[in-house]
Amino acid sequence: MNETDNLSAAKTAGLGFYLENINERNIKNAAAFIKRYEKMAMGLSSQFVEALTLLKKGRVISARRIMGNLYMVRQNEEIFGLFALSTGGPLFHCFPSLWQACNFGAGTSAPDNEDFYENAGFSDEKYFLPLKKLLQPLFVQNQVYGMIGEARSTAMFAAIFGRKPSCQRTYFFMEQLNSSDENSFLDKKLQNAVQFCPCAPKDKEKLYLLQQGYEIEEVLPPGSEHDPESCLKNLEIALKKQQVFAIYIAGAAVAKTGTNAQGFNHCQIGGVYTLPLYRRNNYAWQLISAICRKTAASGKSTSLFVKNINVPAIELYKKLGFTKIGEYQIIYIK
Protein backbone atom coordinates (compact mmCIF):
# COMPACT_ATOMS: atom_id res chain seq x y z
CA MET A 1 0.00 0.00 0.00
CA ASN A 2 1.61 3.30 -1.05
CA GLU A 3 1.28 6.71 0.58
CA THR A 4 -1.58 7.81 -1.69
CA ASP A 5 -3.53 4.66 -0.89
CA ASN A 6 -2.91 5.24 2.81
CA LEU A 7 -4.27 8.78 2.71
CA SER A 8 -7.28 7.66 0.67
CA ALA A 9 -7.98 4.88 3.14
CA ALA A 10 -7.70 7.35 5.99
CA LYS A 11 -10.31 9.68 4.48
CA THR A 12 -12.64 6.76 3.95
CA ALA A 13 -12.02 5.34 7.41
CA GLY A 14 -12.77 8.50 9.34
CA LEU A 15 -11.44 9.44 12.77
CA GLY A 16 -8.26 10.65 11.09
CA PHE A 17 -6.56 7.23 10.95
CA TYR A 18 -3.77 6.67 8.46
CA LEU A 19 -0.83 4.32 7.97
CA GLU A 20 2.87 4.99 7.87
CA ASN A 21 5.71 2.62 7.17
CA ILE A 22 8.50 2.74 9.74
CA ASN A 23 11.72 4.22 8.38
CA GLU A 24 14.88 6.02 9.49
CA ARG A 25 12.94 9.27 9.95
CA ASN A 26 10.21 8.07 12.29
CA ILE A 27 11.61 4.98 14.03
CA LYS A 28 12.88 6.84 17.10
CA ASN A 29 9.48 8.42 17.61
CA ALA A 30 7.82 5.00 17.27
CA ALA A 31 10.36 3.44 19.63
CA ALA A 32 9.59 6.06 22.29
CA PHE A 33 5.90 5.07 22.01
CA ILE A 34 6.43 1.33 22.38
CA LYS A 35 8.88 1.74 25.27
CA ARG A 36 5.93 2.86 27.40
CA TYR A 37 3.95 -0.31 26.68
CA GLU A 38 6.52 -2.89 25.63
CA LYS A 39 5.95 -5.44 28.41
CA MET A 40 2.62 -6.29 26.74
CA ALA A 41 4.13 -6.30 23.23
CA MET A 42 7.59 -7.80 23.56
CA GLY A 43 7.55 -9.61 20.20
CA LEU A 44 7.02 -6.25 18.52
CA SER A 45 9.32 -4.19 20.73
CA SER A 46 12.24 -6.56 20.12
CA GLN A 47 12.00 -5.86 16.39
CA PHE A 48 12.36 -2.12 17.03
CA VAL A 49 15.36 -2.82 19.27
CA GLU A 50 17.00 -4.92 16.56
CA ALA A 51 16.38 -2.36 13.82
CA LEU A 52 17.76 0.52 15.92
CA THR A 53 20.81 -1.55 16.88
CA LEU A 54 21.55 -2.26 13.23
CA LEU A 55 21.14 1.41 12.30
CA LYS A 56 23.53 2.39 15.07
CA LYS A 57 26.09 -0.04 13.64
CA GLY A 58 25.63 1.43 10.16
CA ARG A 59 23.97 -1.71 8.79
CA VAL A 60 21.21 0.24 7.06
CA ILE A 61 20.18 -2.42 4.52
CA SER A 62 19.68 -5.04 7.26
CA ALA A 63 17.74 -2.53 9.35
CA ARG A 64 15.49 -1.68 6.41
CA ARG A 65 14.60 -5.36 6.00
CA ILE A 66 13.16 -5.31 9.52
CA MET A 67 11.57 -1.87 9.17
CA GLY A 68 9.85 -3.05 5.99
CA ASN A 69 7.58 -5.17 8.19
CA LEU A 70 6.86 -2.43 10.75
CA TYR A 71 3.90 -0.06 10.55
CA MET A 72 2.47 2.86 12.48
CA VAL A 73 -1.19 3.87 12.69
CA ARG A 74 -1.60 7.56 13.39
CA GLN A 75 -4.73 9.37 14.49
CA ASN A 76 -4.63 13.08 13.76
CA GLU A 77 -0.82 13.09 13.77
CA GLU A 78 -0.54 11.21 17.08
CA ILE A 79 0.61 7.58 17.22
CA PHE A 80 -2.41 5.35 17.85
CA GLY A 81 -0.63 2.00 17.57
CA LEU A 82 2.18 -0.02 16.04
CA PHE A 83 2.31 -3.43 14.41
CA ALA A 84 4.63 -5.83 12.60
CA LEU A 85 3.40 -7.80 9.64
CA SER A 86 5.28 -10.02 7.20
CA THR A 87 3.90 -12.06 4.32
CA GLY A 88 2.71 -15.40 5.62
CA GLY A 89 3.58 -14.40 9.19
CA PRO A 90 1.70 -13.44 12.33
CA LEU A 91 0.56 -9.97 13.34
CA PHE A 92 2.38 -8.52 16.37
CA HIS A 93 0.70 -5.39 17.67
CA CYS A 94 0.66 -2.66 20.31
CA PHE A 95 -2.57 -0.62 20.43
CA PRO A 96 -2.99 0.52 24.06
CA SER A 97 -6.20 2.45 23.36
CA LEU A 98 -7.86 -0.80 22.29
CA TRP A 99 -6.95 -2.68 25.47
CA GLN A 100 -9.79 -0.97 27.33
CA ALA A 101 -12.05 -0.19 24.37
CA CYS A 102 -12.50 -3.84 23.31
CA ASN A 103 -14.93 -5.57 25.61
CA PHE A 104 -16.67 -8.88 24.97
CA GLY A 105 -18.34 -8.94 28.35
CA ALA A 106 -17.45 -12.25 29.98
CA GLY A 107 -13.92 -13.19 28.99
CA THR A 108 -11.51 -11.89 26.41
CA SER A 109 -11.38 -14.64 23.80
CA ALA A 110 -12.38 -13.98 20.23
CA PRO A 111 -15.98 -15.17 19.74
CA ASP A 112 -16.65 -18.49 18.02
CA ASN A 113 -19.62 -17.05 16.15
CA GLU A 114 -19.15 -17.10 12.35
CA ASP A 115 -21.44 -14.08 11.97
CA PHE A 116 -19.13 -12.08 14.21
CA TYR A 117 -16.51 -12.24 11.51
CA GLU A 118 -19.00 -10.91 8.97
CA ASN A 119 -19.20 -7.44 10.51
CA ALA A 120 -21.65 -8.21 13.30
CA GLY A 121 -19.05 -7.65 16.01
CA PHE A 122 -17.92 -4.22 17.15
CA SER A 123 -20.67 -2.56 15.09
CA ASP A 124 -20.98 0.13 17.77
CA GLU A 125 -17.28 0.24 18.59
CA LYS A 126 -15.94 3.58 17.40
CA TYR A 127 -12.57 2.11 16.40
CA PHE A 128 -13.62 -1.11 14.71
CA LEU A 129 -15.06 -0.01 11.36
CA PRO A 130 -12.46 2.73 10.69
CA LEU A 131 -9.60 0.37 11.49
CA LYS A 132 -11.16 -2.39 9.44
CA LYS A 133 -11.31 -0.14 6.36
CA LEU A 134 -7.71 0.88 6.90
CA LEU A 135 -6.11 -2.45 7.81
CA GLN A 136 -8.11 -5.31 6.33
CA PRO A 137 -6.68 -4.89 2.78
CA LEU A 138 -3.16 -5.01 4.19
CA PHE A 139 -3.94 -8.09 6.30
CA VAL A 140 -5.41 -9.94 3.32
CA GLN A 141 -2.59 -8.88 0.99
CA ASN A 142 0.01 -10.28 3.39
CA GLN A 143 -1.90 -13.52 4.06
CA VAL A 144 -1.89 -13.13 7.83
CA TYR A 145 -2.12 -16.54 9.49
CA GLY A 146 -2.36 -15.39 13.09
CA MET A 147 -2.42 -12.59 15.66
CA ILE A 148 -0.29 -12.40 18.81
CA GLY A 149 -0.64 -9.94 21.67
CA GLU A 150 -2.84 -8.47 24.38
CA ALA A 151 -6.02 -10.54 24.47
CA ARG A 152 -8.77 -8.02 23.76
CA SER A 153 -7.03 -6.17 20.95
CA THR A 154 -5.89 -9.48 19.42
CA ALA A 155 -9.51 -10.60 19.25
CA MET A 156 -10.43 -7.32 17.59
CA PHE A 157 -7.76 -7.74 14.92
CA ALA A 158 -9.06 -11.25 14.23
CA ALA A 159 -12.48 -9.68 13.67
CA ILE A 160 -10.95 -7.05 11.38
CA PHE A 161 -9.39 -9.80 9.31
CA GLY A 162 -12.88 -11.25 8.93
CA ARG A 163 -12.20 -14.99 9.14
CA LYS A 164 -13.02 -17.41 11.94
CA PRO A 165 -9.99 -18.62 13.92
CA SER A 166 -8.91 -22.22 13.51
CA CYS A 167 -7.40 -22.15 16.99
CA GLN A 168 -7.15 -19.64 19.80
CA ARG A 169 -5.24 -19.83 23.06
CA THR A 170 -5.48 -17.52 26.04
CA TYR A 171 -2.56 -16.94 28.38
CA PHE A 172 -1.87 -15.08 31.59
CA PHE A 173 0.76 -12.41 31.13
CA MET A 174 3.05 -12.31 34.17
CA GLU A 175 5.89 -10.06 35.29
CA GLN A 176 8.45 -10.74 37.99
CA LEU A 177 7.69 -7.96 40.45
CA ASN A 178 9.42 -9.63 43.42
CA SER A 179 12.53 -11.77 43.16
CA SER A 180 12.41 -14.99 45.14
CA ASP A 181 14.94 -15.52 47.92
CA GLU A 182 14.02 -19.17 48.17
CA ASN A 183 16.94 -21.38 47.12
CA SER A 184 14.90 -24.39 46.00
CA PHE A 185 17.12 -25.59 43.19
CA LEU A 186 18.27 -29.14 42.58
CA ASP A 187 17.96 -32.03 44.95
CA LYS A 188 21.44 -32.41 46.54
CA LYS A 189 21.73 -36.06 45.45
CA LEU A 190 21.31 -34.96 41.82
CA GLN A 191 23.77 -32.05 41.84
CA ASN A 192 26.82 -34.12 40.93
CA ALA A 193 25.03 -35.66 37.94
CA VAL A 194 23.64 -32.40 36.57
CA GLN A 195 25.43 -29.92 34.32
CA PHE A 196 23.91 -26.46 34.05
CA CYS A 197 25.23 -24.18 31.30
CA PRO A 198 24.44 -21.43 28.76
CA CYS A 199 23.92 -22.53 25.17
CA ALA A 200 25.25 -21.44 21.78
CA PRO A 201 24.35 -22.16 18.12
CA LYS A 202 26.69 -25.16 18.12
CA ASP A 203 24.32 -26.83 20.63
CA LYS A 204 21.29 -26.89 18.34
CA GLU A 205 21.46 -30.65 17.63
CA LYS A 206 21.73 -31.42 21.36
CA LEU A 207 18.68 -29.24 22.10
CA TYR A 208 16.55 -30.46 19.19
CA LEU A 209 14.45 -32.98 21.17
CA LEU A 210 13.62 -30.28 23.72
CA GLN A 211 12.63 -27.80 21.04
CA GLN A 212 10.60 -30.47 19.25
CA GLY A 213 8.71 -31.33 22.43
CA TYR A 214 8.09 -27.68 23.20
CA GLU A 215 6.72 -26.90 19.75
CA ILE A 216 4.45 -29.97 19.68
CA GLU A 217 3.07 -29.42 23.19
CA GLU A 218 2.94 -25.64 23.35
CA VAL A 219 3.12 -24.02 19.92
CA LEU A 220 1.66 -25.96 17.00
CA PRO A 221 -2.09 -25.56 16.45
CA PRO A 222 -4.20 -28.75 16.27
CA GLY A 223 -3.75 -30.66 13.02
CA SER A 224 -0.36 -29.12 12.23
CA GLU A 225 2.61 -31.39 11.58
CA HIS A 226 5.98 -30.84 13.19
CA ASP A 227 8.61 -29.70 10.66
CA PRO A 228 12.11 -30.78 11.80
CA GLU A 229 13.90 -28.44 9.37
CA SER A 230 11.89 -25.42 10.49
CA CYS A 231 12.35 -26.44 14.12
CA LEU A 232 16.14 -26.54 13.80
CA LYS A 233 16.17 -23.23 11.94
CA ASN A 234 14.08 -21.51 14.63
CA LEU A 235 16.27 -23.01 17.32
CA GLU A 236 19.46 -21.80 15.63
CA ILE A 237 18.09 -18.26 15.35
CA ALA A 238 17.13 -18.30 19.04
CA LEU A 239 20.58 -19.53 20.04
CA LYS A 240 22.17 -16.68 18.07
CA LYS A 241 19.92 -13.87 19.29
CA GLN A 242 18.64 -14.93 22.70
CA GLN A 243 19.91 -16.09 26.07
CA VAL A 244 19.33 -19.84 26.35
CA PHE A 245 20.21 -22.14 29.25
CA ALA A 246 19.99 -25.93 29.48
CA ILE A 247 20.45 -28.72 31.99
CA TYR A 248 22.38 -31.81 30.91
CA ILE A 249 22.49 -35.25 32.50
CA ALA A 250 25.10 -37.72 31.23
CA GLY A 251 25.69 -35.40 28.27
CA ALA A 252 22.04 -35.29 27.19
CA ALA A 253 19.96 -32.10 27.39
CA VAL A 254 16.90 -32.72 29.57
CA ALA A 255 15.56 -29.19 30.19
CA LYS A 256 15.91 -25.73 28.67
CA THR A 257 14.58 -22.22 28.74
CA GLY A 258 15.63 -18.81 27.49
CA THR A 259 14.44 -15.44 26.36
CA ASN A 260 12.30 -15.20 23.24
CA ALA A 261 12.22 -11.40 23.04
CA GLN A 262 14.50 -8.66 24.37
CA GLY A 263 13.11 -5.17 24.53
CA PHE A 264 14.37 -1.78 25.69
CA ASN A 265 13.62 -2.32 29.37
CA HIS A 266 12.24 -5.85 29.57
CA CYS A 267 13.11 -9.42 28.59
CA GLN A 268 10.50 -12.09 27.92
CA ILE A 269 11.04 -15.74 28.87
CA GLY A 270 9.91 -18.49 26.50
CA GLY A 271 10.59 -22.03 25.41
CA VAL A 272 10.45 -23.46 28.94
CA TYR A 273 10.50 -27.23 28.51
CA THR A 274 11.61 -30.31 30.45
CA LEU A 275 11.52 -33.86 29.06
CA PRO A 276 8.61 -35.73 30.71
CA LEU A 277 10.88 -38.27 32.42
CA TYR A 278 12.80 -35.49 34.21
CA ARG A 279 9.96 -33.31 35.43
CA ARG A 280 9.35 -32.52 39.13
CA ASN A 281 13.07 -32.07 39.78
CA ASN A 282 13.05 -28.24 40.00
CA TYR A 283 14.92 -27.96 36.69
CA ALA A 284 12.57 -25.27 35.36
CA TRP A 285 13.02 -23.37 38.63
CA GLN A 286 16.77 -23.26 38.24
CA LEU A 287 16.66 -22.30 34.57
CA ILE A 288 14.14 -19.50 35.02
CA SER A 289 16.00 -18.20 38.08
CA ALA A 290 19.19 -17.99 36.02
CA ILE A 291 17.47 -15.98 33.28
CA CYS A 292 15.89 -13.65 35.85
CA ARG A 293 19.21 -13.02 37.59
CA LYS A 294 20.96 -12.32 34.30
CA THR A 295 18.17 -10.01 33.18
CA ALA A 296 18.16 -8.13 36.49
CA ALA A 297 21.93 -7.69 36.24
CA SER A 298 21.42 -5.91 32.92
CA GLY A 299 18.92 -3.53 34.52
CA LYS A 300 15.85 -5.03 32.86
CA SER A 301 12.73 -6.70 34.24
CA THR A 302 11.48 -10.16 33.26
CA SER A 303 8.07 -11.20 31.95
CA LEU A 304 6.44 -14.26 30.37
CA PHE A 305 3.09 -15.62 29.28
CA VAL A 306 1.66 -18.97 30.32
CA LYS A 307 -1.48 -20.89 29.31
CA ASN A 308 -4.27 -19.96 31.69
CA ILE A 309 -5.04 -23.65 32.24
CA ASN A 310 -1.45 -24.64 33.12
CA VAL A 311 -1.88 -24.55 36.89
CA PRO A 312 1.50 -26.17 37.83
CA ALA A 313 3.43 -23.65 35.72
CA ILE A 314 1.42 -20.71 37.09
CA GLU A 315 2.14 -21.82 40.65
CA LEU A 316 5.85 -22.16 39.86
CA TYR A 317 5.99 -18.65 38.42
CA LYS A 318 4.18 -17.23 41.45
CA LYS A 319 6.78 -18.80 43.73
CA LEU A 320 9.46 -17.15 41.61
CA GLY A 321 7.89 -13.74 42.22
CA PHE A 322 5.80 -13.40 39.04
CA THR A 323 2.42 -11.65 39.17
CA LYS A 324 -0.37 -11.66 36.59
CA ILE A 325 -0.65 -8.24 34.96
CA GLY A 326 -2.88 -9.00 31.98
CA GLU A 327 -4.12 -11.51 29.45
CA TYR A 328 -2.46 -12.49 26.21
CA GLN A 329 -3.86 -14.33 23.21
CA ILE A 330 -2.58 -16.19 20.17
CA ILE A 331 -5.11 -16.68 17.38
CA TYR A 332 -4.50 -18.85 14.32
CA ILE A 333 -6.56 -18.08 11.22
CA LYS A 334 -7.95 -20.73 8.88
Explain what this protein looks like in three dimensions.
- Helices cover 40% and strands 27% of the residues.
- By secondary structure, the chain is an alpha+beta fold.
- Strands 1-2-3-4-5-12-6-11-10-9-8-7 form a 12-stranded mixed sheet, with helices on both faces.
- The longest helix has 16 residues.
- It is globular and about 65 Å long.
Helix content: 25-40%
End-to-end Cα distance, whole Å, is: 24 Å
Assign an overall shape. Answer: globular
Q: Give the strand order, joined by hyphens, for the main sheet.
A: 1-2-3-4-5-12-6-11-10-9-8-7
- How many β-strands, per DSSP? 12
Question: SSE layout and pairings?
Answer:
Elements: H1 3-13, E1 17-21, H2 27-35, H3 42-56, H4 60-67, E2 70-75, E3 78-85, E4 90-94, H5 96-101, H6 128-141, E5 146-150, H7 151-161, E6 165-176, H8 188-191, E7 194-198, H9 204-219, H10 228-241, E8 244-249, E9 252-262, E10 266-274, H11 283-297, E11 301-307, H12 311-319, E12 322-333
Parallel strand pairs: 4-5, 10-11
Antiparallel strand pairs: 1-2, 2-3, 3-4, 5-12, 6-11, 6-12, 7-8, 8-9, 9-10
Helix pairs in contact: 1-6, 2-3, 3-4, 6-7, 9-10
